[in-house]
Amino acid sequence: MPRPGYVLDVDRSTPPTMFWRGEGFSLEKLPPDRTRIIYPAEPIPALKDIDGTILHALENPIDSEPLSALLKPGMRLTIAFDDVSLPLPKMRRPDLRQRIIEAVLDLAAQAGVDDVVLIAALALHRRMTEAELRHALGDRIYDAFMPRGLLTQHDAEDPDNLELLGATPEGEEVEINKRAATSDLLVYVNINLVAMDGGWKSTVTGLSSYRSLRHHHNPTTMEASHSFMDQHRSELHKSNWRMGKIMRDHGPRVFQIETTLNTDTFPSQFNFLSKREWEWNARDRAAYIAMSTSLKRTPTRLARNIFHSIESPHQLTSIQCGEVEAVHKITTENVYKQHLVEVSGQTDIMTMGIPYICPYNVNSIMNPILVTCMGLGYYFNLYRGKPLVREGGVVIMTHPTPWEFNPVHHPSYIDFFEQCLADTTDPHELSRKYEKSFAEDEWYKHLYRTGYAYHGVHPFYMWYWASHAMKHLGRVIIVGGDAKAVRRLGFTPATSMNDALELASDVVGPSPTITHFHAPPVLMADVT
Amino acid sequence: MKALQFQRKPMKYAASMVAGTLRPGRGAAYGPLDFDEIDEPELPGADWQMIKPRLAGICGSDLATMDGRSSRYFEDIVSFPFVPGHEVVADAADGTRVVLEPVLGCVARNVRPVCVSCSRGDLGNCERLAFGDIAPGLQTGFCCDTGGGWGTRMVAHASQLHVVADTMTDEAAVMVEPTACAIHAALAFPIVAGDLVVVLGAGTLGLLTIAAVHHFHPDAVIVAGARYLEQRRWAKELGATHVVEPDHVGRLVRRLSGSLAYGNQLTGGANVVLDCVGTESSITEALRIVKPRGRITLVGMPNNVSLNLTSLWHRETQLAGAYAYGTETLRSGDDRRTFDLAFELVGAADLGRLVTATYPLRDYRDALEHAATAGRRGAVRIAFDLRHEKGR
Questions:
Q1: From the list A418, A419, A442, which residue is nearest B260 (CB)?
Q2: Of A96, A123, A273, nearest to A193 (Cα)?
Q3: What is the ipTM of this complex?
Q4: What is the DSSP code string of B56-75?
Q5: What is the pTM of this model?
Q6: Which residues in chain B touch residue A441, judged by CB atoms under 8 angstroms apart?
Q7: DSSP A416
Q8: Which terminus of chain B is more exposed, N or C, with fewer CB under 10 A?
Q9: β-strand B154-157 against B48-57: which pairing, if any?
């Protein structure tokens, strides 16, 4: 029986705590008697017969006829799937998407459906490379569909392949991929890593355009989502669900397939990453020392390649199919089963180690904007109830935060960082002054459509992702970051955790309470 | 009289080149520049008078000369030994304060008839710089007969002198000459509302160029590349719409112009690039970011550079210099003397603020080193203060 998440009160006997620092780690001694550490739950048991479970789910959907009954000869079938941003790190082969889509294709073949198109639901993310598509879908699907042009990647800037379905009473336009919109059946294959994923967000975000996304990917919505991991208090969720109603009324029939994973995130040689420090055995300590020492001597680029080559043993814990909202309700419950950790009360200072990866830098560089997004967008928002840190409190992150960008993947990020953040860090002002010009920039569009670049507006969304935290917090400190880059973000650089705690005391007073968010693996604080 | 005098001493000039390369501004310590007691210059003619410099600026071309980086192009239009200093506010013989317009054109040289350029009022383009009653010298400060601002006395032709109003400080007045250069550059090519104008470099000339473009083309979008924090602050204050580090100019221009790119070359770009640096890399950058049929103006004095001009040919780019001043045609169609416009701009933008530090002549080595590293040290214009020099 896996142990649930745990909150440790730090005392003098507590060993140093492991912090991620990008492509490296550090051990930090946190102040005793006023610090607590939130550890994620151990991985919940995985489903055994994955292929059998998939088939069973497809034939026993929720609030829907079985998939085989929905498949008819002569129909237009579109299968959309989550892109390279999920899961993190990438899953060991065979990827769940491959298994599910192979099962769906088998049923389609049996039903005589021959008009089938696959779409990577990129939204405004970068296109997937051949290697990434092969990894997600398997060689068999890739080789069968790609040469015939039947494996596509959603292009949010292709005016000939977008369809406006309508608008919500709030004026939110729903524009999605035309092939998907004009299909008789849209099967969406999702991987749920955090509570925000899935549901209508899969289709009305993953297959949509800037015209649609701007209605909820904005500072106002983000600031009003407390948090966007909590459906009931998320304006982002509500907007997606309003748009989902337009999809349901005016779009294709959607057969939603959602999956949840456990927190078995890293291969066995990285066991120490998932264990509680006081339970480290000699092997874990040796692995930590060997790895952290060698990483310090390894050129960053090589270390980055090593980390991005990690394949996670992620295990499937549930799969549910059918009607979108009914399916997502169960999915969310299953996500919470793995992620929720009960925490009593808020803290003055929240600490977090930022890893080498976030959803938007797979096989790429974790640039300063993504560090912000990971810390203040994701980790800060992984709460239900109240933020883990009190209003006016401090977040301390550890990450090298290099002034470095992947020019192929993140060209507009460079300009956003160099030009926009030099002017202001206020999300609302950035939105007003700069967003439109970035979103409509022909060069960014060109790179997004033909290269492997995130859409021009994407860095704004990453910044907005952090807007709730920025509004809530009194100060953000990054330990070990490039000082110039950290200042450009509007944050405070610190050379050590002790320095950071001292800097934080200017804001929260002496002897503040501290809570360390010990992730990844991922957890979600249920703060009462 | 006391003066800094620059002599033709090839070995010392070579030494200054080495020293200046190793440490900008250090060329003066090893080169052919001496602080000495020398004879006053004689009046070359009836229309000349003795003037007593009050402040004399240190310009980029002066620094290039002191650090041995000056082009051999000038060999025949300077005469040795000369007292440098062409940015000068001085006391005239009658006690009034005057600003020197240093170009030694046909009128000052007593060349009759005056050349075509001088007849048009384009003094900077004078075709008789090595002829007439005085020795060769493109400007006062490079001519052995006139003396220069880095000495306690010098001679000036009546046509070179502009009276300074009582309300104008010496610091403001000494900025008039470089401001005139900047205005000439800003008005050298038509700029219309919404045009994207890039100013590369934010030393004194770069900052004045920004001020000039902003003053005469307030509806242009001005992008400034400035390396140092204080330069960026000044650039913004003097009217740049966007100020970024030099390495970021290309990306900003691409975005603002809605351009695409072929490799490093923008497909579109800025309407006008005013290069106030004049190095190989700055001109190459200008070629990269200027739009087809756009204009690159070399405002800063360039030297020997190696350039790939294929893009210039292919994109029909105009590459031109902007030297000194003369007569400008404004948008309204009115013709005005550049110096008159400069007096107005210096007053309107309070450009006397840019004089950051002054030195007595005897501290010339410190002064030149400060001037050569002004940006890094948070300074803009460095000048010699001769108001308290003995024997003045």
A1: A442
A2: A96
A3: 0.85
A4: EE--HHHHHHHTT---GGGG
A5: 0.90
A6: 255, 258
A7: I
A8: C
A9: antiparallel
